[in-house]
């Protein structure tokens, strides 16, 4: 059974169908990448999945449970963690306080919380900066904190919205390794522009164009797909 | 609550305050009794504005819900003051939840306007029922009705002590709230509401809780004011009393526990002294607000916290 399924999702803004009858199935334990040219509807689709906006039609099912009407915070409680495309942390709090807050939503016991915080900070490599203010961090580190906020919640699905956007080459390589290491912990839904990153980490790729699913499959089949090549990969 | 230095700091300041007010001349003792009760109102406002970031312009209705909830029941219906006092707090709580359910659907400027409108509606309702409330003129609670648990609240000495007990309870009560799970979520909402929601917190419920606590505490201040000073009047429901707590909190330090008390005392004396020279004392308050926003946006305690003592809560 897929971890997350979308059936016939539709969302229009004015006259524009940003998401047009999209079906999607994210298998547990995989890295599922969403790609597509600018304006293909990637962000709208993940906003629908995370509950930040509600669909005009269609259903979203998490582990067999219909969550189409659930508000965003409920979906997070049910195991869908979300990291923002534009870094959104608590700038006036320390890194530690940021991650503790994220852990608090999920863990009730103090010990479990502290352990989850340690683990998350270690995973993203921010352990030695715990007391630094989040707002003082370099951009790349803020992106890492953003991911730590996600994994500390021990989500069943972690949605990463363009995690490598604005990073330098060395940092991107670091992120690829991080994403690979996260595979053992959680299922990833990755929205990504950088094709090298996608090819390096994705098990399944779904290509969007004009709000529709153009193709879906493993990286090889997507690379050799003629429609995808002409639409996106530039032949 | 663990006894760390932030708690000890507040307890120390409150004890120092007690020593100072006991040593003051009688005129200033009278002032301080008022200041400390009004500072409870400021503490209440600080929960919603300072810690949660909800800029309400309608808190006069919560204060006066307590004022009238106690005043009318004790004076007209002859409730015992203890029952009347509890009733007043419940009035503030219920009103805050009712207003919050509607007003919290909006944010920012709209929230200001909606709370202001509700508060004005409350004010006009007070005037409409002038037969009972005596409108602007107000009414006096007779001295024999102003005993609480056997204590005569109309004497100057007990009034001073009781107001000190109330402000101490409010400051330390706020500290308990701020340190709780709810308090952390409230600060998170103030700092980044969208993120807080996407961490799995029910933001609406948290904001409603903040407003409920704030409304109940404001009503407690209002109810205490009516019993301690024996006067209930519509001025306390006017927009002026929605703006005062904002000024007090801004002056003392938004999102600090002791700031509201300091802000209330300073503003009280500023108006007290300037009204000796001019009838335009609200102009003085206005100028202070402008200067504050420009030069000391964090308020007095907020600035001390940033510069000297980051551990102040």
Describe the structure.
The complex is a heterodimer of chains A (235) and B (313). With 235 residues, chain A is an alpha/beta fold. Chain A contains nine helices and ten strands. Chain A has a six-stranded mixed sheet with strand order 6-7-8-3-9-10, sandwiched between helices. In chain A, helix 3 packs across helix 4 and helix 4 (110-124) packs antiparallel against helix 5 (139-151). The longest helix of chain A has 15 residues, at 110-124. Chain B has 313 residues and is mainly alpha-helical. Chain B has one domain (5-238). Chain B contains 14 helices and four strands. Chain B has helices at 5-23, 26-51, 59-75, 81-103, 108-128, 130-133, 156-179, 181-191, 193-197, 203-229, 240-252, 259-277, 281-295, 299-307, and strands at residues 139-140, 147-148, 151-152, 231-232. In chain B, the strands form two sheets. Chain B has a two-stranded antiparallel ribbon. Chain B has a two-stranded antiparallel sheet with strand order 2-3. In chain B, a hairpin with a 2-residue loop joins strand 2 (147-148) and strand 3. The longest helix of chain B is centred in the C-terminal third of the chain and has 27 residues, at 203-229. Chain B is globular. The two termini of chain B are 13 Å apart. Chain A binds chain B through residues 50, 52, 72-74, 76-77, 82, 84, 88-93, 101-102, 104-106, 149, 153, and chain B through 181, 184-185, 188, 191-192, 194-203.
């Amino acid at each position: 059974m897929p971890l997350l399924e979308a059936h016939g999702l539709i969302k229009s803004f004015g006259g524009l169908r940003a998401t047009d009858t999209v079906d999607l199935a994210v298998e547990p334990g995989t890295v599922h990448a969403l790609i597509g040219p600018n304006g293909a509807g990637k962000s709208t689709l993940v906003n629908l999945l995370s509950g930040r906006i509600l669909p005009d039609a269609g259903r979203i099912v998490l582990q067999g449970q219909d969550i189409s009407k659930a508000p965003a915070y409920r979906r997070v409680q049910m195991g869908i963690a979300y990291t923002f495309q534009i870094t959104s942390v608590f700038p006036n709090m320390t890194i530690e306080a940021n991650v503790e807050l994220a852990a608090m939503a999920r863990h009730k016991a103090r010990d479990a919380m502290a352990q989850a915080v340690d683990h998350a900070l270690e995973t993203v490599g921010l352990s030695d900066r715990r007391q630094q203010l989040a707002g003082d961090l370099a951009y790349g580190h803020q992106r890492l904190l953003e991911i730590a906020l996600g994994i500390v919640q021990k989500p069943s699905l972690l949605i990463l919205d363009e995690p490598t956007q604005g990073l330098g080459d060395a940092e991107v390589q670091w992120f690829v390794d991080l994403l690979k290491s996260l595979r053992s912990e959680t299922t990833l839904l990755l929205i990504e522009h950088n094709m090298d990153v996608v090819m390096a980490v994705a098990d399944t790729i779904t290509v969007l164009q004009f709000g529709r699913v153009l193709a879906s499959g493993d990286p090889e089949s997507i690379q050799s797909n003629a429609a995808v090549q002409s639409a996106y990969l530039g032949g | 609550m663990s006894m760390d230095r932030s708690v000890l700091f507040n307890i120390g300041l409150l004890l120092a305050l007690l020593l100072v007010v006991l040593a003051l001349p009688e005129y200033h003792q009278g002032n301080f009794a008022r200041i400390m009760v009004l500072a409870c109102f400021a503490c209440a406002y600080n929960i919603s504005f300072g810690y949660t970031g909800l800029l309400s312009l309608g808190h006069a209705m919560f204060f006066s819900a307590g004022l009238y909830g106690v005043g009318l029941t004790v004076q007209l219906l002859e409730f015992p003051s203890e029952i009347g006092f509890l009733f007043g707090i419940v009035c503030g709580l219920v009103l805050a939840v009712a207003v919050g359910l509607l007003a919290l659907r909006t944010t920012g400027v709209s929230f200001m306007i909606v709370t202001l409108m509700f508060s004005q509606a409350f004010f006009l309702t007070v005037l409409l029922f002038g037969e009972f409330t005596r409108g602007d003129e107000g009414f006096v609670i007779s001295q024999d009705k102003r005993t609480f648990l056997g204590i005569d609240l109309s004497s100057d000495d007990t009034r001073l002590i009781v107001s000190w007990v109330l402000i101490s309870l409010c400051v330390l009560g706020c500290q308990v709230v701020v340190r709780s799970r709810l308090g952390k979520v409230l600060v998170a909402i103030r700092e980044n509401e969208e993120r807080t929601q996407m961490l799995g917190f029910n933001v609406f419920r948290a904001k409603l809780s903040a407003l409920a606590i704030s409304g109940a505490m404001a009503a407690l201040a209002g109810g205490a004011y009516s019993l301690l000073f024996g006067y209930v009047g519509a001025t306390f429901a006017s927009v002026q009393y929605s703006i005062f707590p904002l000024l007090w909190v801004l002056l003392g330090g938004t999102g600090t526990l002791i700031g509201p008390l300091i802000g209330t005392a300073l503003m009280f004396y500023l108006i007290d002294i300037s009204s000796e020279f001019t009838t335009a004392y609200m102009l003085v308050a206005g100028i202070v607000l402008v200067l504050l926003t420009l030069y000391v946006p964090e308020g007095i305690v907020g600035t001390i916290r940033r510069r000297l003592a980051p551990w102040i809560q």
